[in-house]
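Page 42, continued from yesterday. The earlier attempt failed because a stray header line got pasted into the input along with the sequence. Redoing it now with the clean sequence only.
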Amino acid sequence: MAAVEQDACIKQKLEKVCSIKGVGIITAATIVSEANGFVLFKNKAQLVSYAGYDVVENQSGTSLNSPAKISKKGNHHIRKALYFPAWTAIKHLPELETVYRRVFDKTKIKMKAAVAVQRKLLVLIYTLYKNNQTFDLNYQSVKKPNKPH
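This time it went through. Structure tokens are written below.
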């Protein structure tokens, strides 16, 4: 925590990340430090893959066709840090509760649904940190219209 206190810019960004219900300073600092301040990531897909939340399928012709699962080949410290904040977010944030319910209703596996929320939470932390924004529960993203070819 002393390292966070020394840099005012990082402290301010982490406080904005902590505006997410369930994400505390320890969680935010762990994720940002394990991802090296997100400086090496050009997009959220790279971060998701780095953390091991990317989905892989094991297929080989017709003989082997296993269900999709997360790779777990990434940084286990990030996944470990997001476990309890994800359950708190499911309880207090309607958007993430919707994600949890949708995945659980489809798979009937609570942990798979919780991992989907952890992934969403990681992307949310990344976005807030990079854009230096506070979490807004009523935020509506504006989608850009597709350009005709």
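Notes: The mean pLDDT is 89.
Reminder to self: strip header lines before submitting.
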